[in-house]
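Can't attach files on this board, so I'm pasting raw text. These are the components:
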Amino acid sequence: MKYWLIKSEPSVYSWDQLVADGRTLWDGVRNYQARNNLKAMSVDDIALYYHSNEGLAIVGTAKVVREAYPDPTIDDDTWVAVDIVPLSAFPEPVTLAKIKQEPTLQSMALLKQGRLSVVPVTSEEYECILALSKS
DNA sequence: GCCAACGTTGGC
DNA sequence: GCCAACGTTGGC
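---
Top answer:
Structure tokens for the assembled complex are below.
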């Protein structure tokens, strides 16, 4: 079991939209590092769902239900997509500001590599964020 | 809306 | 193969 964090701009595809759809394909990744992270995902891995640009917070968790396959939105098998379903919505969104204040989370890939849209999360970081989401 | 960070492209 | 120029992302 691995943990990830995936970013989406709410104006493009929000958490609410994911919940409404029940399932979606995570496509459109055009960055090699992010692509490699997508490829490293396994079924049942959990991804924290982060709203970038607006919200600036992790709002819930999603589960990987299909491993990387060629991105159907582009005619180039360099790029891949995965399928995810919503798992649980956070009672309290965990904001970026909060993450920056938390000593345990200082080394998160989210902070180190701000521009990467798919980043790995350690189990320690995951547990910490989960705890913050309940406060 | 601005700007910093950083990945990618292309000329040499 | 290096590095400058450029484009994109995302926080503020």
